[in-house]
Design goal:
The chain is α/β, with parallel strands linked by helices and 340 residues long. It has nine helices and 15 strands. Helix 6 links the parallel strand 13 and strand 14. Helix 4 (142-159) crosses helix 9 (316-339), helix 6 (251-271) packs across helix 9 (316-339) and helix 8 crosses helix 9 (316-339). It is globular, with a radius of gyration of 21 Å. The chain starts with a helix and ends with a helix. 41% of the residues are buried. It binds zinc ion.
Amino acid sequence: MPNWIGLLLLGCLLAASHELAATEPRLATPREGEGAYALLRRHGFQPTPEDFEAFLQLNQDRLGPEHTLIRGRSYRIPDTRQVAARKPVAGGRVYYPIFGPHYAWVERKDTELADCALYLESGHGGPDPGALGWREGHLLAEDEYAYDITLRLARVLLEHGAAVFLIVRDPNDGIRDGQWLAPDHDELTYPRQPMPVNQVRRLHQRAAAVNALYAQEGGRQHYHRVVIIHVDSRSQDERIDTFFYHQANSPAGRRLAVNLRDAFEENYRKHQPERGYRGSVSTRSLYMLSATQPPAAFIELGNIRNPNNQYRFIEPGNRQALAEWIAAGIARDVQAERDR
Ligand SMILES: [Zn+2]
């Protein structure tokens, strides 16, 4: 066998081993009179708008008018229930309905984070909006802004080939580009569990979701981290810089928090050199830091009641920048881990 064939085969094997998204979806054929919802229901779904959207995307080329199904054709069944966000196929694009219609297609730019799994938890959600602020007659809810930034972060990480798991999920929000993110209460815990009203039970549910995913992903990736994203609430006139917590006895958690802070410092130096940045890294005993098995860092993005800090969240461009800075901090941490 000539060498190049061996190389080609090796390439295919490597691609197959970590390109889970490349596995073909299941096929199904509709029964008489059956529409997409009924077909999905027959295949074990209680279809959400997210499932429906994924189904349409997967089957664009074989649907009849008004999204009808044509008898005798086979349709691809989406894989939205299994994993929050699979890795994009090498050099290709993957459709993730969770990001909403304008951002659902994610293009893989490189494989910088190909051996990494990130478990992203945006604070609060469901029955609990978290910290609240007001601006120009609009109610600002922590959970909505934290979620939007977390989605943007997830998308950047996917572009670099990471496996990403969204622990808090809102199937019909997606990435939103407005200033005012309307508060709602329909967020779910991965994969799609309703959130308990009781706070302790809600946090237990999230930590259990992270740990179950970690058990499943443990052998597949080398680098596993939990990133928890919140917005703080202080007195209205207190301006705070984004700061970070880690668990006291977690050197890897501390390293991640420090790398996140350093990425923020570097970006402020680059983009607002006059400003200065004093974001701190400290330990704090928090359930989500101690109960999740992979090392974790907790981010407080700013004070939701302070008019100056609010600008950091209400401007969609700023939310995108925060997401990119957090992603840069993670990339730094991955590099530090590789250099060890
Ligand atoms: Zn919070």
